[in-house]
Amino acid sequence: MSAAGPPSEERPAPRHGAEPREPDFAHPVERELARLLDEHGIAWEYEPRTFVLERDAEGRVREAFTPDFYLPEQDVFVETTVMRQRLTSRKNRKVRKLRERGVLVAVLYRRDILRLARRWGWHRLERAARGGLGAAREGRR
Q1: Residue 21 lies in a domain
Q2: Are 56 and 62 contacting, i.e. CB atoms less than 8 angstroms apart?
Q3: Counting C-beta atoms within 10 Å of the first and last residue's C-beta, which end of the chain has fewer, N or C?
Q4: Structure confidence by residue, pLDDT tens digits, 50-104
């Protein structure tokens, strides 16, 4: 497991040998995905970078995006979302802007998470996607 410090605009560096600690996950799906990545030996970082997508005339951040995970060995960011598909347009727009900059971002929607969970028998992930492992942290997303 790898937990990141404060967000930056730099490319994240893998934290080999860092003391592992449980990140403050925003949603149970993120916790379960991290557990599965650990079980399969896949290095990950939780919310290691915030990408500034737009600034106002004074240079203040108007729009930013922080993907849930970074997989350093695959050089890919992963965003999970369990919100209803019709409510994802704002998140999709941010992902599209990031991809236009050449950043590789994979989005796992609720339906994708449920399919993976059913296919591989990941019951805890399925329960998390359905809301069965507790609610998301207050005030997040």
Answers
A1: no
A2: yes
A3: C
A4: 999 999 999 999 999 999 999 999 999 999 998 776 678 889 999 999 999 999 9
pLDDT digits (tens, 9 = 90+) for 26-53: 999 999 999 999 999 999 999 999 999 9
Q: What amino acid is encoded at 54 in this protein?
A: E
Written as six digits, the tokens of 49 are 């970078």
Residue 93 belongs to a domain with what CATH number? 3.40.960.10
Alpha-carbon gap, residue 32 to 54, rounded angstroms: 32
The model carries a pTM of 0.76
Sign of the Cα torsion 52, 20, 73, 90 reads: negative
17, part of any domain: no
Provide the number of structural domains found in the chain. Answer: 1
Residue 119: inside a domain: yes
Range of the domain at 81: 28-129
Inter-CA distances, 60 with 56, 63, 65, 89, Å: 5, 9, 14, 24
Q: Where are the beta strands (DSSP E) in 37-138?
A: 45-46, 51-55, 61-65, 69-71, 76-80, 105-108
pLDDT at residue 4 tops 70? no
